[in-house]
Each structure stands twice: as structure tokens, then as C-alpha cells.
Amino acid sequence: MQKIKQWHQFDTAAQVADAVVEQILSIAEAAIEKRGCFKIVLAGGSTPEKIYQLLANAKTDWSKWMIYYGDERCLPANDKDRNSIMATNALLSKVAISPANIFSMPTELGAVEAARKYRLTIADAGQFDLVLLGMGEDGHTASLFPGHQHNDLDDTVHEVYNSPKPPSDRISLSAKTLSNTRKLFFIVTGDSKRDPVKQWKLGADLPVATISPVAGVDIYIDKAAIN
Q1: Is the pTM of this model over 0.90?
Q2: Which of 47, 81, 101, 189 could form an S-S bond across to 222 if both were Cys, CB 3.0 to 4.6 Å?
């Protein structure tokens, strides 16, 4: 369970996006200076998309960024509903980042083979510098859903079936892998998130509560989601 939660509240989703962009660029600069690269795990969703659009205009050493994904739907490689396609359209196709530094989940191969291949990718990644995550109306994050059991707690990448949101087949980084990061931001916006946020604060057993980096988590949230 999470020991440290830092809440950062803003009036609007746009202000949340601006604040997160500022923090991402600061963390990237420090990581590149200290370790020569910046390893970030991207999330899907509308507010992350806005963040990526803002980042496309930012000044940073894109050649040192290494891009990973928290989860992906099992869809054809160019399907518009894939997180990787959203991130490519919003950001990655607009900046000078090498394709060799972008580690998409190969879910067009199906959940079993995609998870197997991405386990190898994660084995080479080591610790992330920053993980971005959202939260669903049911308290899910990445493709870790309430009521789903993943018996191998040491697994780094889970195959996900019977997702309550289509498509049913996905893969997701495990809670253990998502927690292997120096910094982790939850990005939570909109009044549809009020109930799960209340449950989270009260200590409910939600997937968002299973992500527990040593440094704790930072939650960037708008007024609509917390009031």
C-alpha cells in the first residue's frame, strides 16, 4: 500500500497539464545530467494527451529520452485507439527522438507474445525516472482493473483478459514494475473521478493503491475530481 501521497490540486485540467509538463521537463533535465538519459513511462487518456501536445513545443534533449508504455490494447499496430498511436500523433512524431528509443508494446501480436517480448524490454530498462498514470472511474490504472487477479506477484508484465472496457485483451506493466521508478505522477481530472478519489483517500483496495514506489506518489488533480 502507498505510504506517501502528495496531492497537488489545481482549478482546471489545463492547469494540471501545465504543472505536469513543467515537472516532466525538470525531471528530464536532471536525469540526463546525472545518468545520461531520461526513462519515462507514458499513460493513455485525454489529459496525458494534452500534456504530450504541450511537450511537443518544449526545449529538451529529445535524443536522450527513452519512451515506454504502462499498458496497451491488443489492436492492429496503427489502430487509432492504441496508446502508442495517440502518443505518436501528439508528441513523438513531432520531436527529434530516435525510433530506437521508443519501446512500444507489440500487442498486435496478441497478449501472450506481446507480454513475453515486453518482459525482455523491461528487463533491460532498469529503474524508470518517471511513470505517468491516470485513474479510471472504477479506480483502475494502466490496465490493472478491480477484481482481476494476477497470481505471479513477481511478473513484470501482465496479460490482461476480460477487460471491463473494450477491447477485452491487453497487456499492462505490473504494479511491481510501475513502482520501480524514481518518481510517479497520477494525473486525475474530471468530476467522474470524485467517487474513486474518495475511496482511494479512505484506503479502499483499488488498483491505484497498489502502486507504491519508495519515494511515494504525486497526484496532480483538478478541483472537479476532488470536491
Answers
A1: yes
A2: 189
